[in-house]
Specification:
With 233 residues, the chain is mainly beta. The chain contains no helices and 12 strands. It has one domain: Porin (Beta Barrel). An 8-stranded antiparallel β-barrel has the order 2-4-5-6-7-8-9-11. Strands 1-12 form a two-stranded antiparallel sheet.
Length: 233
């Protein structure tokens, strides 16, 4: 009687490094609050939205820590935006904030399904560089600010068969992110020296893009090996 030898199981430590690119559609929301600097009394508050387009890069690593279909992927994304959200007054004056750069560092976790489909949830911490602007014609003031935030979202990736013949697997993905940012402050700007301004921002982002696995593809599975069992007594 021939008995097949057991095949070596995929280890939990094995994984794939990947890089990619993405288009970013951003719906930004900003609440701008004006206060008298001397007595800290609120004098105005405005809420505004805008929806510009940007782009970015990402890098990550996928692995199966429990040796099953659940994939975990630490990742970092770097998005370059020109995302202004302004409140405009009669005569052309305005105040607001422009998002210049968004970076997110986090995890994607979810099941790997059939046909090369991966569904996942997203959680991470983010950083935003923005320009705070007060333009009360004819005087203009601006200030750069860095703020931190928290990001939650979900997404899915797919490996189309037509893109798998180039030496490294290629995936297409689509994701939704929502980020809550810390407030950014602009106190007594030259354009409005008796007031302080606080900008509270949130962003809803839809990303579509691609990733390329950089790890060496695994060798094809070998035929099972057999050994001869001892005869039964």
């Amino acid at each position: 009687m021939r008995v097949p030898c057991p095949q070596t199981a995929q280890t939990a430590a094995s994984g794939d490094l990947y890089i990619g690119g993405e288009l970013v559609k951003n719906w930004g929301w900003v609440r701008s609050t004006e206060r008298l600097a001397a007595i800290d009394v609120q004098t105005n508050q405005f809420t505004d939205r805008a929806d510009p387009l940007g782009g970015g890069l990402l890098i990550g690593y996928k692995f199966a820590p429990w040796a099953n279909s659940v994939i975990v992927s630490p990742f970092a994304s770097f998005d370059f935006m020109n995302s202004p959200v302004n409140h405009t007054f009669a005569g052309g004056s305005y105040l607001g904030t422009t998002a210049n750069f968004m970076g997110t560092f986090g995890l994607k976790v979810g099941p790997q399904l059939g046909q090369g489909v991966w569904l996942y949830g997203i959680a991470g911490v983010s950083v935003l560089n923005e320009t705070l602007k007060i333009n009360f014609v004819p005087t203009y003031s601006s200030q750069s600010a860095w703020v931190a935030g928290g990001t939650l979202g979900f997404g899915g990736a797919w490996k189309p068969t037509v893109l798998q013949g180039y030496g490294h697997p290629v995936s297409l993905f689509a994701e939704y992110h929502h980020t809550w940012w810390q407030d950014a402050n602009f106190d007594t700007p030259t354009a409005s020296p008796v007031f302080n301004y606080t900008f509270a921002r949130q962003d809803d982002v839809v990303k579509i893009g691609f990733t390329v696995d950089l790890s060496t593809p695994p060798p094809p599975a070998s035929a099972p090996m057999y050994w001869k069992a001892l005869p039964a007594k």
